[in-house]
């Protein structure tokens, strides 16, 4: 793997503070280098596509810094959530790592991403740049798809982050009430229509909620899910995800 974006590695400061003997050592999951930290060596970690310039609301990657830091969609159609914390773009090599975790259950590829993400969130929570949620809500998965895959990666992520950050996980707060077509086959408008009425909130939602998912594409799922949570009482809704697809 090359080191083209090594200079953009936003995790470097946090990493220097977090290094310890427990997390050091072992093989890098990407290149098998023996000098890994949380499962990735420094060159491979530097190769991850950092979401450097992005919409401050939905985290859509932007080509250059913007004075408003809002994308066209969020300006025209303000989403029901307040902000998104999504550190990477869904591009090589991150897409392959998430794919092996999500579709093949190979958690070793998610471990370095989740560890680094938890560190970033902890740093932002401690600096009060990020309001601390009352609960984490994993994006619900269709029961048939969950049985076929063996686990819900959003719930797996939420439980990891919840343990690390001391935030309870409300896995049963929202459930899917019907099956839908696979979202990856649809454009933004079709995704919103496809998801209409698909989520049901089972009880009153806390005031502050963070929705947890692996990848945000058009943002349709988190918009519909956030709308359901807002109707159930949530007032400050964030979106936490590993990666955002470029526009």
Structure notes:
The chain is an alpha/beta fold. It contains nine helices and seven strands, in the order αααββααβααβαββαβ. The protein has helices spanning 12-18, 42-46, 72-76, 94-104, 111-126, 143-149, 153-165, 188-195, 220-231; strands spanning 83-85, 88-89, 135-138, 174-176, 199-201, 208-216, 236-244. Strand 6 (208-216), helix 9 and strand 7 form a beta-alpha-beta unit. The relative contact order is 0.16. Mean pLDDT is 85; it is low at 1-22.
Feature tags:
247 residues; alpha/beta; five-stranded parallel beta sheet; two-stranded antiparallel sheet; 7 strands; disordered N terminus
Number of helices: 9
Radius of gyration: 18 Å
Give the end-to-end Cα distance, rounded to a whole number of Å: 25 Å
Shape: globular
Sketch the major β-sheet: 5 strands, parallel
Topology overview:
Layout: H1 12-18, H2 42-46, H3 72-76, E1 83-85, E2 88-89, H4 94-104, H5 111-126, E3 135-138, H6 143-149, H7 153-165, E4 174-176, H8 188-195, E5 199-201, E6 208-216, H9 220-231, E7 236-244
Parallel strand pairs: 1-7, 2-7, 3-6, 6-7
Antiparallel strand pairs: 4-5
Helix pairs in contact: 5-7, 8-9
Summarize the structure.
This protein has helices at 12-18, 42-46, 72-76, 94-104, 111-126, 143-149, 153-165, 188-195, 220-231; strands at residues 83-85, 88-89, 135-138, 174-176, 199-201, 208-216, 236-244.
């Amino acid at each position: 793997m090359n080191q083209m974006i090594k200079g953009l590695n936003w995790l470097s400061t946090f990493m220097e503070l977090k290094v310890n003997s427990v997390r050091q050592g072992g093989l890098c999951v990407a290149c098998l280098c023996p000098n890994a930290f949380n499962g990735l060596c420094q060159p491979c970690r530097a190769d991850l596509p950092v979401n450097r310039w992005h919409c401050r609301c939905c985290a859509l990657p932007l080509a250059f810094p913007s004075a408003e830091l809002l994308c066209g969609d969020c300006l025209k159609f303000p989403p029901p959530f307040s902000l998104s914390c999504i550190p990477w773009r869904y591009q090589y090599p991150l897409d392959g790592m998430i794919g092996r975790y999500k579709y093949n259950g190979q958690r070793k590829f998610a471990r370095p991403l989740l560890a680094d993400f938890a560190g970033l969130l902890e740093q932002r929570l401690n600096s009060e740049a990020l309001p601390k949620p009352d609960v984490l809500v994993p994006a619900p998965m269709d029961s048939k798809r969950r049985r076929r895959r063996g686990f819900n990666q959003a719930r797996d992520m939420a439980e990891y982050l919840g343990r690390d950050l001391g935030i309870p996980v409300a896995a049963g707060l929202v459930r899917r009430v019907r099956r839908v077509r696979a979202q990856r086959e649809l454009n933004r408008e079709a995704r919103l229509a496809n998801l209409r009425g698909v989520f049901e909130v089972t009880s009153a939602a806390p005031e502050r909620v963070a929705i947890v998912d692996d990848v945000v594409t058009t943002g349709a799922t988190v918009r519909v899910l956030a709308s359901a949570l807002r109707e159930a009482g949530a007032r400050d809704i964030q979106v936490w995800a590993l990666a955002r697809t470029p526009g």
